[in-house]
Design brief:
32% helix, Aconitase, domain 4, 8 helices, alpha/beta, seven-stranded mixed β-sheet
């Protein structure tokens, strides 16, 4: 995983409430156990018409969204069934953070374990972001804050271990493997004589 310390990006605004994981990555694309390539199916039923052509009116198909790494979504993002493919599709597309007033717990846990930062903000900050699509914002993991172009800063909750993993670009297994020598030393001390 690519470490995240500071993200500075224009936002992409998808002001839809209750976006579930089947809308993020439809079930018909869950035939892989790898992350690569899932971004092309992100929001497939919304991004593409029945003929497979991109819908010009969908925000992720518009030129101003190109290169943005922060998605601002409506309330209750990532609800529905548990699937790691949802954060995989978002990160494979190039998104590194999702901002909302509420992010479903299972999606949030999957996101954190897969290098996608879920940012939960107060309604007033969220409303400002929804009303200013394309605004350049800064997300700083050192201070767990999101800074608007106005200079206003909003703090967001993030568990210390998840923050550590995101800032160092490791998942839980990577964290443990990085401590293999310490674990072996401990096991040697605890081994029966």
């Amino acid at each position: 995983m690519e470490p995240i310390r500071t993200l500075r990006s224009r936002t992409v605004v998808l002001a839809v409430n209750d976006i579930d994981t089947d809308q993020i990555i439809p079930a018909r694309f869950l035939t892989t156990t790898t992350r690569e390539g899932l971004g092309r199916h992100l929001f497939a039923d919304w991004r593409f018409g029945p003929d497979g052509a991109p819908r010009a009116d969908f925000v992720l198909n518009q030129p101003q969204s190109s290169g943005s790494s922060i998605l601002v979504a409506g309330n209750n993002f990532g609800c529905g069934s548990s699937r790691e493919h949802a954060p995989w599709a978002l990160t494979d597309f190039g998104l590194r953070a999702v901002v909302s007033t509420q992010i479903a717990d299972i999606f949030r846990n999957n996101a954190l374990k897969n290098g996608l930062l879920p940012v939960i903000v107060e309604p007033s900050t969220h409303r400002w972001l929804l009303e200013h699509p394309g605004a350049e914002v800064t997300i700083d993991l050192d201070t767990t804050s999101l800074t608007l172009p106005t200079g206003e800063t909003a703090r967001f909750p993030l568990e210390p271990f998840a923050r550590y993993c995101l800032m160092n670009g490791v998942d839980e297994l990577g964290f443990l493997l990085g401590r293999e020598a310490e674990i072996a030393a401990y096991e040697t001390l605890r081994a029966p004589a």
